[in-house]
Amino acid sequence: MDEVRLVQKAQRGSAAAMTRLLRRHYRQLYTVAWAYVRNEQDALDVIQEASYRAVVRVAQLQDPALFGTWLTRIVINEATRLLAERKRREAAPLTETVPAAIATDAAQHLAVTEALGSIDERYATVLRLHYLGGWSVHDVAGQLAVSENTVKTRLARGRAALREALGRD
Fold it and tell me: Using 50, 70 and 90 to split pLDDT, how confident is the model at 96?
């Protein structure tokens, strides 16, 4: 069954259709969640909360053809919420959000993490999906429902903002 019809069934209250949709998108959702939280258990928590929110709000989705993008956005919002909540609790930013290849020592690792948290969320999102999640520009554009040129621009501006936040010109 095609996805639009499944979404329409889910919007009419079919639990089976919603379950099928969530299973269909699971790998993609996990990849996005992990790119943000860099921890398996946290990624699973993000997916669980995002799935709950999607089930509760699926009837509000205007265009069933955009279900995957809508669901990905919910995961991004949940991951961002989790990171912000953790940051408030710990008084120090998470170091798991930066890959080891970017930061070679703990101080640099912490600096990059703080810098990622300080730049515009639009830029941080594409940087995380592209570099941490390993997504192509095309895939990022499809999931965020923007053009590839927009993704390329946000990557360039994000890298520049990251360099500036780190004090490197």
Answer: very low
